[in-house]
Design brief:
heterodimer; A: about 220 residues; alpha/beta; 6-stranded mixed β-sheet; two-stranded antiparallel ribbon; about 15% strand; globular; B: about 270 residues; mainly alpha; 9 helices; about 0% strand
């Protein structure tokens, strides 16, 4: 795909099959948001195609597009919590909105994920009562909740200590075993140097193109 | 040449302003129509949407009950005082009480309640939506598959409509009872409460009920729609909210009085 939003930047081609994990390094971390938006069908492209689960993002009607997006988990790069909603409500929001399960079941699953990400349970406070690290842990739990088909991780280690890398890798591996795919944007050397990430693609933006790389 | 250029400029500006007004009115009408369309679809009513409507009813309705009661309690005696002045001139005290009650229920009540909605809830909605939009959270909702229109706009429009309807009933009933009570205290009420209420009901037609409903609910829905719209225009920084608040207030007030005039003339 090529997008005018990125100027001369992206002429990018990437296909993720079930079980794939792509680790992507970008010169400007903010670009990860734009690319993640593209993966969600929220970016207008000037050439090429963008598709998810075999559906071209330009085709579906609004309701269908929303349903498809609900199958994508995402750790957003910027502020991503609605201030007046308790964190647990935000975590369950899209699943309840799309009636993807009973509230009790989703809450139980969310609590398990939160514990995997070293939180005592699903936070019930409002976002401004939590630290940035705890919000990022809850953000990870939200992204992996409900067995998404694709998870987009935008610099997830940004506010987290190194010991959180392993839980994220384990969550990715669990999802991949269930047929999900992961697109992980990171410029963090802890991530690139980690031996635990069994990525099927390692890409970096070099000279305006996405190029396979092994370098951190 | 100069007068001709002035005329061109005048025509250009007047035309642009008129086109702008009609475009804004069409946009708002579109929002309300889509709200009504989505409201009728069962698919819209997911748990978070219901929760958000209830939250809006709480903030616009429940939290405004005390202010509504206070105004009604203060206006009751004023109503009776006015009635005494007019009855001294005209006579027919009972009829006057009923007519003034109807006037307040039909015309004054809906306008007053909608002014409360504009001041208390409308401005809060503009600030809330503006903050969410400037913070990129409407895009986050969209990226998560949660339709921002249904979750943020529809819920506030429906919530404000329901809150206004309930507040108008509370206002009207409190005002009538307070007025009657004050008249009893002064010893000027020469009919029983049941006769008073039955007499008022007898003066009320189906058209009055429709009028009260339309004059109450539609302006409140328009208020929420306008405030959501102005909030969505806040895209870069929170300081833009300060610019949008007065615009939202003026537009809501104009919409309220235009609606009141149209419905009063139409029914």
């Amino acid at each position: 795909m090529t997008s005018r939003h990125f100027g001369s930047f992206l002429d990018w081609s990437l296909r993720l099959d079930p079980g794939d994990l792509a680790l992507v390094r970008l010169p400007d971390p903010r670009l990860s948001g734009l690319l993640a938006d593209a993966a969600c069908g929220l970016t207008e492209i000037t050439a090429g195609t963008l598709s998810f689960l075999g559906r071209d993002w330009r085709r579906p009607a609004a309701d269908e597009a929303a349903r498809l997006r609900s199958r994508i988990g995402r750790v957003f790069g910027e502020v991503n919590w609605i201030g007046y909603l308790p964190v647990d409500e935000s975590v369950l929001l899209k699943h309840l909105h799309h009636r993807a399960g009973r509230r009790e079941d989703l809450l139980r699953q969310a609590a398990e994920l939160c514990r995997e990400f070293r939180l005592p349970g699903v936070p019930i406070d409002r976002p401004n009562a939590l630290s940035r690290a705890d919000l990022m842990r809850a953000s990870c739990a939200r992204a992996f909740l409900g067995q998404p088909r694709l998870v987009l991780l935008e610099q997830p280690m940004r506010d987290l200590p190194t010991d959180m890398l392993n839980p994220i890798i384990m969550a990715c591996d669990g999802l991949r075993r269930l047929g999900g795919a992961v697109l992980w944007f990171s410029n963090d050397t802890r991530v690139w140097n980690s031996g635990g990430i069994d990525a099927t693609h390692r890409l970096a933006e070099i000279g305006g193109r996405m190029t396979p790389t092994d370098q951190a | 040449m100069k007068p001709l250029r002035f005329l061109y400029q005048l025509a250009d500006r007047t035309g642009s302003a008129l086109v702008g007004i009609f475009a804004d009115a069409a946009f708002l009408t579109g929002i309300v129509i889509r709200v009504l369309y989505d409201t009728a679809r069962p698919r819209t009513w997911s748990r978070p949407v219901v929760d958000e409507v209830l939250r809006q009813i709480y903030y616009s309705g429940v939290k405004a009950v005390s202010l509504t009661l206070l105004i009604a309690l203060l206006l009751g005696p004023a109503l009776i005082s006015q009635m005494l002045v007019w009855s001294a001139l005209i006579g027919e005290t009972a009829l006057l009480v009923q007519l003034m009650g109807l006037l307040i229920l039909r015309d004054f009540g809906p306008v007053l309640i909608n002014l409360i909605i504009i001041g208390r809830s409308g401005m809060a909605i503009t600030a809330e939506i503006g903050t969410l939009n400037a913070g990129g959270l409407t895009r986050v909702l969209d990226a998560s598959g949660v339709d921002p229109f249904r979750y943020l706009v529809l819920t506030r429009v429906v919530g404000c409509g329901i809150a206004a309807l309930v507040l108008t009933q509370i206002f009207g009933l409190t005002l009538l009872l307070t007025g009657y009570g004050f008249a009893m205290v002064l010893g000027v009420a020469n009919i029983s409460l049941s006769d008073y209420l039955a007499g008022m009901l007898a003066q009320t037609t189906i058209g009055d009920f429709v009028l009260i409903l339309m004059k109450t609910v539609l302006p409140a829905m328009l208020t929420a729609a306008i405030c959501c719209w102005r909030g969505m225009l806040v895209t870069r920084s929170m300081t833009e909210i300060a610019r949008e608040l007065p615009t939202a207030f003026v537009l809501c007030t104009v919409a309220l009085f235009v609606c009141a005039a149209i419905f009063t003339l139409a029914i």
